[in-house]
Amino acid sequence: MSMSKMTGVLAGVVLMCGLSLSSARAAEIKGKVAVQGLRSPENIVVYVDAIPGKTFPAPAQPALIDQRKMTFVPHVLPVLKGTTVEFLNSDAVGHNVYWPSVGGNKKLTHNLGTWPQGQKKSFQFNDLGAASLLCNVHPEMSGYVVVVPTPYFATTDKEGSFVIKDVPPGHYTVKTWSEDGKPTTQDVDVAASGAALNLTVKK
Amino acid sequence: MMRRAIDAGLVVALAGVAVFLWFTACAVPRASAIPAFARKYQTSCTTCHNDYPELNDFGEAFKKNGFKFPKDDESFVKEPPVLLGAKAQREVFPKSVFPGEIPGMIPISFRYSGFASYNNRQPLAIGFQPRSDLFMPNTFTVIGAGSFGPNLSFWVDNDISSGGANAAAGLGDGYLKVNDISRPLHLPKDTMNVRFGQFELDLPFTQARSIDPTGYDIYSEASFAGVQGTTSNALQFGIPQRGIEIGGYPNDGNFEWSLAVVNGSNNNAAMRNSKDIYVRVSQRFNLERDPEVRKEVQAAGPTGPRDHTSIRFGAFYYYGENELNQDGSLFAGIGTLKEPFYRAGGDVRFKYRQFEVYGLGMFGHDNNLIPNTDTGMVSRGVPVNFSGGFAQAQYWIYPWMIAIMRYDFVNSPTDMLNSVSTLATRNRFSPGAQFLIRANIKAVFEFQRNWEIPIPGSVLPFRHYGFVAGVDYLF
Predict the structure, then answer these.
(1) ipTM reported for the complex, 2 dp
(2) Contact at CB, A139 and B305, closer than 8 angstroms
(3) Are A48 and A84 in contact (CB under 8 A)?
(4) Which of B94, B109, B182, B361 could serve as B191's disulfide partner, Cβ 3.0–4.6 Å?
């Protein structure tokens, strides 16, 4: 075998090993959320609960919630604890953003004020739980920032499907948060090949 | 000395008309907020109303803009209109009908308001009067409003029932409005607009869209000479008129003007050929310190939006020429009696965060002619004058809880001489409270302390107390 062929084979082996290692480190939790008594399985946050002994740095890039056509977009935004969220007003009318509590704790109420089109304000969410976003200019507007303890989270689509990416293999507790449903908790073992998880959220 | 030859029967009839009008004055048509707009834009009533039907700064801008958002309206409409012709049809005009549009869904809303009342004991001289009445008046109103394209808007409201089951009420406002007709002259936007139809005059403070369960006393004051002469002017400010109005509000609505030509017969058919003229001008001074905030439709406080801190001063003038005896049936050989009259006044409104106070003063003057059927001569009698006004303060304790203080006063010696009132001055203090149970449902309470009330036949003035409570909802 020539030297060049040997090099090619070795490179191929290394690449294969690398790919297999990589997939072992970045498994997915796929699944579907069924609902009982709720209108839709959409916009349910599914997340891996706190992992003992592990902390996660907040992302450097801020997340964004837009106020467009008098709605919060997205309607539900899950973020890792410590994430900064920017609130943009894209409408030609003034909007306000405030939340009466975070995770039910009314001491964490906050009002960012009111600002015109094109401007944005930001806030760092350092407390776990859901913040119910409101606009006191347009009281029908509703949105949520759901602050979770790990970077392993996803939001369900219209069918209730979700994919939590980049989850290391291991044993975890998965929880749900939804606008009108009760929280659901379920343990899951994530193998190198990933895990499948079906959940039911009840009103 | 000239003999005053006024037929005694006529005097009694005129006095009777005055009394009748006095007691029907409270039946002022009431318009309201529009859930049809809430549906069209998928937004809450509170976007436009602090306490419906009173408009907040945004609601005022919405109304002035022809029931459209002040900016980028199309992007907010959740229910697209039906086009009555492609926009490009404009290029074909006049060979085709100019394109327009109608609301995507029928823009109809409904309002019910029912009030229970409790009064102190009435003198038996006027016949037995029950001290309490449940849900009377009892009004159901149908409201339609919207736009027919960029510059055309419309409003129609009709009280289907009022004052009891199946009792007929009638049309409140029913008009078509064209915005910005001065655009070809390159004047600022909405410098000149025009309204046609039946509408409430551009009053300093609307009666039809007032939050109060009872009308402003000065708005329902009519002029009747009774035994003092021939003046018989049923005009009441609070009732809509039929006519044409041009007006505008350039400079972001700080300056407002309007000029209306109306029948002068309120919402009844014309009684004479001459038309009346109403003029109003007002200037708002925006007291917000931040120039950027002053530019915005609503002020943006640290905790949310609010109306601009501002003060508005206004003045109004109404002129008409009442006519009597047009066919000679009242005074043979005298001819038509023409009695010019005017109403003039000023107003002020101050807003500061959750507090606002406003009021107006008004003076009314009607010429009063005395015909002499023997000589065929007509002399001038003592004019029928009245003055009065009101002052009101409102405070939003919470966005859903509003405290109200109001004082009405009317000074009319002629009313006293004609037994419409037992004193020349009628005053009323009306504290109240309103609670928005939901954005479209409210409970209304008003206490009334009348120092004098207009009851024919009563001999002595007496203290009068009353209490009104009711529900008011729209959908």
Answers:
(1) 0.70
(2) no
(3) no
(4) B182
Q: From B76, which residue of chain A is nearest by alpha-carbon distance?
A: A69
Instruction: Kindly state the tokens that stand for A188.
Output: 């899951």
Interval B220-248: pLDDT, tens: 999 988 888 899 999 999 899 999 999 99
Residue A156 lies in a domain: yes
CA-based torsion, B418, B423, B425, B429: positive or negative: negative
User: Are residues A181 and A121 both part of a single domain?
Assistant: no
CB of A30 closer than 8 Å to CB of A167: no
Determine the Cα angle at A155 with ends A149 and A158, to 5°: 165
Residue B357 structural domain: 8-474
Give the residue among B371, B372, B345 at the shortest CA–CA distance from B359.
Answer: B345
Nearest Cα to B219, choosing from B437, B63, B76, B390? B390
- The pair of structure tokens assigned to A14 is 């290394």
- How far is it, in rounded angstroms, from Cα B321 to Cα B279? 16
Of the candidates B127, B232, B71, the residue with the CA atom closest to the CA atom of residue A89: B71
CA distance A200 to A195: 17
Encoding tokens for residue A1?
């075998």
The Cβ of residue B333 has, within 10 Å, a number of other Cβ atoms equal to 11
Contacts of A92 in chain B (CB under 8 A): 69-72, 75
% residues pLDDT > 90 (chain B): 53
- Polymer length of chain A: 203
In this prediction, what percent of chain A has a pLDDT beyond 90?
Answer: 79
Contacts of A93 in chain B (CB under 8 A): 58, 69-71, 76, 297
A71-75, B13-17, B132-136: range with highest mean pLDDT: A71-75
Q: Look up the CATH number of the domain holding residue B458.
A: 2.40.160.10
User: Are A114 and B304 within 8 A, CB to CB?
Assistant: yes
Q: Tell me how many domains chain A contains.
A: 2
pLDDT at position B173 is 93
Amino acid at B28: V
Number of domains in chain B: 1
User: Is any Cβ of chain A less than 8 angstroms from the Cβ of B336?
Assistant: no
Tell me how far apart the 2 most distant CA atoms of chain A are, in Å: 76
Q: Measuring CA to CA, which residue among A83, A28, A47 is closest to residue A156?
A: A47
Q: Is a pLDDT exceeding 50 seen at residue B408?
A: yes
Q: Answer yes or no: do B303 and A136 touch at CB < 8 A.
A: yes
What are the structure tokens assigned to B24, written together?
């029907």
pTM of the model: 0.82
Answer whether B373's CB lies under 8 Å from B5's CB. yes
* Pair A34, A92 in one domain: no
The encoded tokens of residue B192 equal 């000149």
Residue in A94, A98, A138 nearest the CB of B44: A138
- Residue A72 CB contacts under 8 Å (≥ 6 apart), including other chains: A65, A66, A133, A141, A142, A143
| Segment holding A7, helix H or strand E | helix A3-25
Q: What is the mean pLDDT of residues B164-189?
A: 84
